[in-house]
Amino acid sequence: MESLIKGLLGVIGAIERVAIGIAMVMMFAIMVIVASDVFMRYVFNSPFAWAYDLISLYLMAGVFFLAVSQAYGAGAHVSVDILQQTFPPRAKRLSECVTCIVGLVAFALVARFSFDRALDAYQSQDVIAGSIPWPTWPSIALVPLGTGLLCLRLAVTLLGQLASLATGRDIIPAVANSHDTGEVFE
């Protein structure tokens, strides 16, 4: 079971690295487009009419949703763990199980409904009104892609926490915190 969980986490981590790479390219594209747009606006008085739509519709959505799973895996999401610090290891694992279950249900719903919305937008050929009629479905499709990957991570993390509880071994860390291990809040 341990090797299966670690293998699944490795596969998810590889997918997340690809997603983060794409998100990084999108972030770089945002910087280049904004800098070029400012240059064109103030030097030639001719800004890009398409820049705002491209950035807000596609690139920002990609930066956020393609990074959400990796951020959870790295413990970079906001967490209120002041009570968890006082828990014994078994209670920490149980609280992580509850967190994974609640997150899995919530993000599975987001993934499902956003997938339906993306499919509907694709089938009805939805576009935004603007200088370029950008199709909306690719932007909407980033939501189920990112949240679906997060659901996979949450499901495997839940399995790892449950296996750790059952065996008494640290198959995966009890709690993934982004703060220093010696940091204590009182």
Gross geometry: elongated
Poorly predicted regions: none
**DSSP helical segment count:** 5
User: Strand count, sense and closure of the main sheet?
Assistant: none
Helix % is: 55-70%
First and last CA, distance? 38 Å
What is the residue-averaged pLDDT? 90
What pattern of helices and strands is seen along the backbone? HHHHH
Strand content: under 5%
Count of extended strands: 0
Count of separate structural domains = 1
How would you characterize this protein structure?
With 186 residues, this protein is an all-alpha fold. It has one domain. It contains five helices and no strands. Helix 1 packs antiparallel against helix 2 and helix 4 (89-123) packs antiparallel against helix 5. The chain is elongated and about 65 Å long. The relative contact order is 0.17.
SSE blueprint:
Layout: H1 2-43, H2 51-65, H3 68-73, H4 89-123, H5 137-167
The gist of it:
By secondary structure, the chain is mostly helical.
Which features characterize this protein?
69% helix; transmembrane helix; 5 helices; TRAP transporter small permease protein; 186 residues; membrane
